[in-house]
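Raw record, unedited: Alpha/beta hydrolase fold-3 domain-containing protein
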Amino acid sequence: MGSLPHIVEDCLGIVQLFSDGSVSRSDDVKFPMEVQDDGSAVWKDCLFDKEHDLSLRLYKPRSPSAAAAAALPILYFFRGGGFCVGSRTWPNCHSCCLRLASALQVLVVAPDYRLAPEHRLPAAVDDAFTAVKWLQSQALLSDDGGADEWLAKGSVDFDRVFVVGDSSGGNLAHHLAVELRRGSPSLAPVRVRGYVLMAPFFGGTVRTKSEAEGPPEQFLNIEILDRYLLN
């Protein structure tokens, strides 16, 4: 008689991988921080991928400045998490997007994406591309009034879109830049004007100097990432 499945990897108690390949992902996360919300921005959730049940969170200034009120630029924010943890709902991501919307006077789009090890790469990359294609569909619907009210014609500027990614989100931003190319012609009438990669998380079959010589990490180390991110 075989032994019962046992935990072989445990990431902060949030994700546990068992010996039979099954995965347990906890929704009961003890956050060391609270949401920082001064009321200067508002937000709501939208489903952007029905097939994979993926949503994104929209943020905008509660009272846009006179200069921005006519048409807000759009900023995509792809959060980090080593491709294995995180959500648009987590306090660190939510607080960051609230501040970005208010301080920059932009409409922020913060998509979720499928997580490893249940969904190995390039699933997250595919989801990032689906998220920006969703914006294109909204832009095309805006001409006849069919878009989400926050993306109605004249309320946002589809010609001024920027993509920001943090850590693994920076990796997604990089892949979007490669896929969409300069001027993002395949997204017309949406135009991506620039990409910002904040401490982007990259890896490959050939080790970089920092990977080969850097100190080992307790969580999301090279060995774990090699095993559970890639097919």
